[in-house]
Design brief:
Strand content: 15-25%
Number of domains: 1
CATH superfamily: NAD(P)-binding Rossmann-like Domain
CATH architecture: 3-Layer(aba) Sandwich
Radius of gyration: 18 Å
Number of helices: 10
Order of helices and strands: HHHEHEHEHEHEEHHHEE
Number of strands: 8
Structural class: alpha/beta
Oligomer: single chain
Largest sheet: 8 strands, mixed
CATH topology: Rossmann fold
């Protein structure tokens, strides 16, 4: 494909980057990213990927916009309260950049629904808010061999990692299963600093763009943590676990199933 004059102007700050250029921008316009969860993390990720000119964004979310969402879910407006999140987000994305096609899936990601959706996309962003969904996404991406970005936030802290199935450590290599029900508070109970979602969600978008362009080093085999109060980042090296139940040497998980719903915590929350 060739860029139009309007696209050359819109994406000029990308095009003048030697590592991106016109060909890189064309690659972004031909790329597809799926965002599961149009909430705190999905909002900034979707807006920055749309601004970057990622040609197709998929949005998966079964919820409607609630007034309590607006403290951090910046893709939605007060007038959107009661509207399906995927439709509200689609309207903002298309208003920002009409180059971007938006596929909406107003449903809950389950073992029955997720795999056919994943197959259509080049990179997955996990912006979900519970343990069950996060393990489901990890496992589905492993079976479909789809790279994805995991992230979580709660209170004043966040974390993220990128997983390339079959190459890097996966989510279960670190957290092999959900904690006991009620063992950790949800974000609605513990609270979360609204701007924290912007920091971590933007980093997820960065990982997606890097992957699509083949630039830099992905955040694989590492867990990046962020403390907003101390304004500190820490990267912790992790390794593929040979005893991992899904990607280990003797996998015990051989088909996709739904985990029992659990509460979320720092490791597993996008609220």
């Amino acid at each position: 494909m060739s860029l139009t004059d309007e696209q050359i102007e819109r994406y000029s700050r990308h095009i003048i980057l030697a590592d991106v250029g016109g060909r890189g921008q064309e690659k972004l316009l031909a790329s597809r990213v799926l965002i599961i969860g149009a909430g705190g993390l999905g909002s900034p990720a979707a807006l920055y990927l749309a601004a970057a000119g990622v040609g197709t964004l998929g949005l998966v979310d079964a919820d409607a916009v609630d007034l309590s969402n607006l403290q951090r879910q910046v893709i939605h407006r007060t007038a959107d309260v009661g509207t399906a999140k995927v439709l509200s987000a689609k309207a903002r994305i298309q208003a920002l950049n009409p180059d971007v096609a938006v596929d909406t899936y107003e449903l809950q990601a389950t073992a029955q629904t997720i795999r056919p959706i994943l197959r259509k996309y080049d990179f997955i962003i996990d912006g979900t808010d519970n343990f069950a969904a996060k393990f489901l996404i990890n496992d589905a991406c492993f079976f479909e061999r789809k790279p994805f970005s995991h992230a979580g936030i709660v209170r004043f802290q966040g974390q993220l990692m990128t997983v390339v199935p079959g190459v890097s450590a996966c989510y279960r290599c670190i957290f092999d299963g959900p904690p006991p029900a009620g063992a950790v508070p949800s974000c609605s109970q513990a609270g979360v600093l609204g701007v924290l979602a912007g920091v971590i969600g933007s980093l997820q978008a960065t990982e997606a763009v890097k992957h699509l362009l083949g630039l830099g080093s992905p955040l694989t085999d590492a867990l990046l943590t962020y403390d907003a109060l101390e304004m500190g980042f820490r990267k912790v090296a992790v390794r593929r676990n040979p005893d991992c139940p899904i990607c280990g040497d003797h996998p015990r998980i051989t088909e996709l199933t739904d985990e029992v719903q659990r509460s979320c915590d720092l490791r597993n929350c996008k609220c």
